[in-house]
Amino acid sequence: MHLQTGLSEDDNRLIAAFHAKRKLFDDYIRVRALGLFTCPGCGYPTLHRRGDFSICEVCFWEDDGEDDETTSVVADALTAFGGVSGPNGQLTLTQNRLNIGRQLEENAAATHGVPDLEPASVLKTLDVFKTKREKIEEKLSPDAQITDPAWQELKNLREDLKRALAVSTHFPYDPSTTPKLF
Predict the structure, then answer these.
(1) What is the DSSP string of the chain?
(2) Contact yes or no for 168/111 (Cβ under 8 A)
(3) Whole-number Å distance between alpha carbons of 142 and 84
(4) pLDDT digits over 113-166, tens only?
(5) Which residues pair with 115 in a beta bridge?
(6) Number of other residues whose CB lies within 10 A of the CB of residue 130
(7) What is the pLDDT of residues 25-65, one digit of tens each?
(8) Are 114 and 178 in contact (CB under 8 A)?
(9) In the chain, what are the domain boundaries?
(10) Do 167 and 121 form a contact (C-beta atoms < 8 A)?
(11) What's the CA angle centered on 119, arms 115 and 121, to 5 degrees?
(12) Which residues have CB under 8 Å from 101's CB, separation 6+?
C-alpha cells in the first residue's frame, strides 16, 4: 500500500485507489503492447511517450517526467525554494492525484455510479473524446481569441470527458465484471 505521511485517511484512500487504477491500466496496456503510458497524475492511459511535456486529456497534468520516484524531490524543492515551479505550477503530483481522484469520485456519485475501471471501455471513451477534440480544434484559427466559441466548446468537452469516465451502477452494471480496487 502507498500510504503517505501527512495525509488524511481519505487522502491515503484516494492515493491507494490511484495506484491500483494505474497498475490495472499499466498491466492492460503492457500485455496488449498498445504503445501507451499511464499519466502519472491520474493513472489513465493517455500518454504516447513519457517526459515529453504532453498534457493529459483527463487531468491536464503536463508530463515533465516526474513520477513516484521523483515526486518527493520536486515537492521538497517547491517547499524549499517557495517560488520555484515547473510546468504544473505549484501543483505537486500528489495534490494533482488527490484533486482528480476527488473530481472523478464526485462525477461518479452525481450519476450514482463509480469511476470506470474497465480498460477497454476507458480506451474507447478516450478515443471518442480525442476525435471530438480534434474536430473542435479544426475550428480554431491560429489567432483565435479566448472568446471564440470553440474555446468554450473545448472547455466543456474536457469536463464532459471526466463525467464520461464514470459508469452507472444501475443496470446493466454488473459488479462481477468491474475490477475491485481494494
Answers:
(1) ----TTS-HHHHHHHHHHHHHHHHHHHHHHHTT---B--TTT-SS-BSSSSS--B-TTT--B-SS--TTTHHHHHHHHHHHSS--BTTBT--HHHHHHHHHHHHHHHHHHTTEEE---HHHHHHHHHHHHHHHHHHHHH--TT--TTSHHHHHHHHHHHHHHHHTEEESSTT--GGGSPP--
(2) yes
(3) 31
(4) 899 999 999 999 999 999 999 999 998 888 888 899 999 999 999 999 999 998
(5) 166
(6) 13
(7) 999 999 999 999 999 999 999 999 999 999 999 999 999 88
(8) yes
(9) 9-177
(10) yes
(11) 75
(12) 14, 15, 17, 18
Report residue 43 as a C-alpha cell. 493513472
AA letter at 66: E
What b/e string do you get for 82-114 counting C-beta neighbours within 10 Å, with b at 16 or more?
eeeebebeebbbbebbbbbbebbbebbeeeebb
Site of grid cell 480534434: 134
What 89-97 contacts at long range (C-beta under 8 Å, 24+ apart), as own/partner pairs, is 93/40, 93/41, 93/61, 93/66, 93/67, 94/4, 94/7, 94/15, 96/41, 96/42, 96/59, 96/61, 97/14, 97/15, 97/18, 97/41, 97/42, 97/43
